[in-house]
Automatic annotation (TrEMBL):
GO terms for cellular component: Golgi membrane; perinuclear region of cytoplasm. The gene is Mgat1. The keyword Disulfide bond applies. One of its GO terms (molecular function) is alpha-1,3-mannosylglycoprotein 2-beta-N-acetylglucosaminyltransferase activity. This is Alpha-1,3-mannosyl-glycoprotein 2-beta-N-acetylglucosaminyltransferase. It is found in: Cytoplasm, Perinuclear region; Golgi apparatus membrane. PANTHER family: ALPHA-1,3-MANNOSYL-GLYCOPROTEIN 2-BETA-N-ACETYLGLUCOSAMINYLTRANSFERASE, PROTEIN O-LINKED-MANNOSE BETA-1,2-N-ACETYLGLUCOSAMINYLTRANSFERASE 1/ALPHA-1,3-MANNOSYL-GLYCOPROTEIN 2-BETA-N-ACETYLGLUCOSAMINYLTRANSFERASE. Pathway: Protein modification; protein glycosylation. Keywords: Cytoplasm, Disulfide bond, Glycosyltransferase, Golgi apparatus, Manganese, Membrane, Metal-binding, Signal-anchor, Transferase, Transmembrane, Transmembrane helix. The cofactor is mostly bound to the substrate. It comes from the Eukaryota. It comes from Regulus satrapa (Golden-crowned kinglet). It is a single-pass type II membrane protein.
């Protein structure tokens, strides 16, 4: 475990040092303000965070020479099977170049939107979730030379970084954040983040067959499941009409349609470079009134529109 400190607080350093020798304590050497454009003065914190990520990941992969790393912020609580999950995800990333990371986070992981009884379920997502994530040294080799001055997570979500690759994410989050105070001033915290369901039981992922997450196999079964599900209207879904409890599909036909349906269902409705949170090929999977729902574009979907935001 490497703890990278990005402040000069003596008390913080003392607490970190108290965990020695179980942790390696490293300190960001540059603590001064970052020169920013005048209109970005209020975003100084985002510039410092990006600078710290670049330095700390450089230490992990260049100085310590690790071949993979799990990035965890200091305001995250982790699930009992957090490390088990990533241990199982590591071979997937090494074997499948269409995957570029694995994340512990489900952006739509609020209680009531997930099936807590199916905590072993994993998905591919085109959205970079962060909040506890695994990357390989090879990915850092690619990203480091062009690492951004600020807003690194949204930068990761741009098509020129993602390059058509996906991330693994769980049905039930393996992290939860208690960080209401921070650089983002609690953006999304009261509405979404504090309600994220943290998995509370151990799933032996390393003993499970996760080959279904390989691109070809996943798209075959996932898309068949989505587009064979009967289409329903929002009103039917909200009323819980019908005796059948099988999966259903709710179709959107444009940016405004997606945002309206997501908002009505309590999902995160923002898009980054056209990609919905937790979405794969435009499809967002969640639970409503105990029923699996796929919020999906038409079956002839041809790709994300980066102008959607």
């Amino acid at each position: 475990v490497i703890v990278s400190q990005d402040c000069g607080h003596a008390e913080t350093a003392r607490v970190i040092a108290s965990y020695a020798p179980a942790v390696a304590h490293i300190r960001q050497p540059e603590l001064a303000d970052v020169p920013v454009p005048p209109e970005h003065r209020k975003f100084q914190g985002y510039y410092k965070i990006s600078r710290h990520y670049r330095w700390a990941l450089g230490q992990v992969f260049r100085t310590f020479r690790y071949r993979a790393a799990i990035v965890v912020e200091d305001d995250l609580e982790v699930a009992p099977d957090f490390f088990e999950y990533f241990q199982a995800a590591l071979p997937l990333l090494r074997a499948d170049p269409s995957l570029w990371c694995a994340s512990a986070w489900n952006d739509n992981g609020k209680e009531g939107l997930v099936d807590a009884a199916r905590a072993e379920l994993l998905y591919r997502t085109d959205f970079f979730p962060g909040l506890g994530w695994l990357l390989l040294a090879e990915l850092w080799d690619e990203l480091e030379p062009k690492w951004p001055a600020a807003f690194w997570d949204d930068w990761m979500r741009r098509p020129e970084q993602r390059r058509g690759r996906a991330c693994v994410r769980p049905e039930v989050s393996r992290t939860m954040t208690f960080g209401r105070k921070g650089v983002s001033h609690g953006q999304f915290f009261d509405q979404y983040l504090k309600f994220i369901k943290l998995n509370d039981r151990f799933v032996p992922f390393t003993r499970l067959d996760l080959s279904y997450l390989r691109k070809d196999e996943y798209e075959r079964f996932f898309l068949a499941q989505v587009y064979s599900a009967p289409e329903v209207k929002l009103e039917e879904l909200q009323k819980g009409a019908g005796g059948d409890s099988g999966p259903v599909r709710l179709q959107y036909r444009g940016r405004d349609s997606f945002k309206a349906l997501a908002k009505a269902l309590g999902l995160m409705d923002d898009l980054k470079s056209g990609v919905p949170r937790a979405g794969y090929r435009g499809v967002v999977s969640f639970v409503c009134r105990g029923r699996r729902v796929f919020l999906a574009p038409p079956s002839d979907w041809t790709g994300y529109d980066p102008s959607w935001s």
